[in-house]
Amino acid sequence: MGNFAITGGATGIGAAIRKRMMDDGHSVVVVDIQQADVVADLSNPTGRAVALAAIRERCNEGLDGFIPCAGVASQAPPKLTTSLNYYGTVELVDGLRDLLSKNNGSVLLVSSNSAPMCDHPDYIEILLEQDEAAALVCADSINGHQAYSGTKQAIVRWMRRNINEFSAQGIRINAIAPGYTQTPMTKKVEEDPAYGPAIKEFMDSIPIGRPGQPEDMANAASFLLSNQASFITGSLLFIDGGHDAMIRPDQI
């Protein structure tokens, strides 16, 4: 079977994807800030360099797939969200292109169904210019939700802008957009006396009638990373129980 690497694979959606890929028979190298094969902080250039060197050492014969799943939610400081969610994703994908190309590998990005909700286009454009210092300055002027949705939109736009180059290198790249998913992190918010009622109301509004589970994301990841999806690249798949369709019925 294949050689895969995943960031943020210790908990939540990342852990479910890791388990599914291993259940499918693949070898998986996990990068995370703790409890991982490679311990590295992807919110800074030094940590990204450590992660890249370790993955390259462990997978020097090539990568069949890479899932950059490490990230923080909207409650995190905007600067941390900027550095980890966006730069901790695209810099690792770029740094592993040669290993992915060697095996005609596939990349799966983790966006969000809140990606369309960012109303700070200047922030997104600065991210796409790959100027981390300028993006961190801009992050001081926005809130956590805008930073989160902005980074999740930017990684998809980065993917689509680079699709010709990826394809020429023999690499497929797609993204999933999870909706509200019950993980250890979201469980704490659900149980919070102040925020819990609002979260319950939000979950009740999901058209399919239930919140997402990490396994829902892992099932889609397994398909998009497999040869069954060999003609799918540059696509964003919403996995949100119909929430995006409900909120934006006339946009595709």
Q: Strand order of the main beta sheet, please?
A: 3-2-1-4-5-6-7
CATH superfamily: NAD(P)-binding Rossmann-like Domain
CATH class: Alpha Beta
Give, in order, the helices and strands.
EHEEHEHHEHHHHEHHHEH
Shape annotation = globular
Residue-averaged pLDDT, rounded?
95
Beta-strand portion reads: 5-15%
Number of domains: 1
Q: Based on helices, strands and strand pairing, what is the structural class?
A: alpha/beta
Q: Briefly note the CATH topology name.
A: Rossmann fold
CATH architecture assignment name: 3-Layer(aba) Sandwich
Number of helices: 12
Uncertain runs with pLDDT below 50, 5 residues or more? none
How many DSSP-defined strands? 7
Q: Briefly, what is this?
A:
The protein is an alpha/beta fold and 252 residues long. The protein has 12 helices and 7 strands. It has a 7-stranded parallel sheet, sandwiched between helices.
